[in-house]
Prior knowledge:
Distance between the termini: 36 Å
Helix content: 55-70%
Structural class: mainly alpha
Number of domains: 1
Number of strands: 0
Order of helices and strands: HHHHHHHHHHHHH
Oligomer: single chain
Strand content: under 5%
Shape: globular
Amino acid sequence: MAVDDRPIEDEGNGCPPLGSVPQTTRSLLAAYVAIARPDHWFKNTFMLAGVVLAASCHSELIGWHTIPAILWAFAVTCVVASSNYVINEILDAPTDLHHPVKRRRPIPSGRVKVRWAYLEWVLLGLSGMALAATVNRCFFWSSLVLLVMGLIYNIPPVRSKELPYVDVLSESVNNPLRLLLGWFAVSPHDVPPLSIGLSYWMVGAFFMASKRFAERRSIGDGAVAGAYRKSFRHYTEESLLVSMFFYATAAALFLGVFIIHYHLELILSAPLLAGFFACYLHVALKKGSSAQAPERLYRERFLMGYLLACVAVFVCLMFVRIPALYEIFNVPSSEATTLWKS
C-alpha cells in the first residue's frame, strides 16, 4: 500500500489543505488521538454481554479477582479497535470531503499528516495484538479476527463498506466478536452458544442499518450520498427500512432459539426488548438523528434509560430460575451446555 503524504484537497468546499491550519503541540496531539476515536470505545461495552453470559454458565469463575482481568481485556480491545478506526479515517478521508460533517475530521481538514497516521495505525495494531496475547490464546485469535475484519471493511480491493448490505453485515460482525472477547476474558476453554452469537450479530446489523438510514436521510441528495459512499448509490430510505425490519426479526428469531434451548426465564424480557427496537427506530426517524453517530446517542435520555432497564432485567433473569415457566410453556428444563470446547 503506497503512502501518499500529499494534502487531500477539497475542491470548492472551503476546507484548508494539509498543513495550512496553525496548530499548537497540544492541538496536534489531540488530532492524532482523535483519529483513534476514543469516543467510540464505549462500543466495547458490548463485551459485557459475553462476561455476563460466561458468568451465568460458569459462576465458579466469577469473583472480585476477575474484575482486573475483565478491565484489562476491555482496554486491550480498545487498542485493537482504535487501529481499525485509524485506517478507516485514512482511507475514508477523500470521500469524507463530500459529507457535511465528516469533512471536518482531522485528516480531510488537514490537521493530520497521512504518513504519520499510517504509522499510528501499524503501531496500534501491533500493540493490540501483543497485549491480546497476554490475556489468553482464544482472546488473541478473536482480537486478530477483529483486526482483520477492519482490514476487510476498509482496504481495497475488498473494501466491504462500499458494497450494499455487505457493508452492514461485515461491520456488525464486530458485535459477536466483542461477545466472544468478553466471554474469553472469563472462560477461555469453551465458547458461547451459536444462537446468541447470531442474534448479537443481527442486533448489530440493525444498529448499523439504522445508522445508514439516518445518514441517507440527513444527506438527502442521492448524488451527494453516492459520492460520499458508493453503497449509497444502491440504497434508498425504503430499502434500508426493509433491511432494518429483516435484521430485527432475525435477531429475535435467534434469541428465541437461545431462550428456549438454554434459559427460558429470559422470555420475560421479550416485551422490553421489542420495545427497545421500536424506540431505536423512533430515534432513527428523527431529523438529524443521533443514530447516524452512535457516539452521540447518550443525548437520547429516554433511549439510554430504556436500554439500562432492558440490560438490568436481562442480566437479572440470567441468574434466576422460575420452574413454573417451563410448565406454562411446556418446555423441558434445559441442561444444555455451551456449543463446543475450544
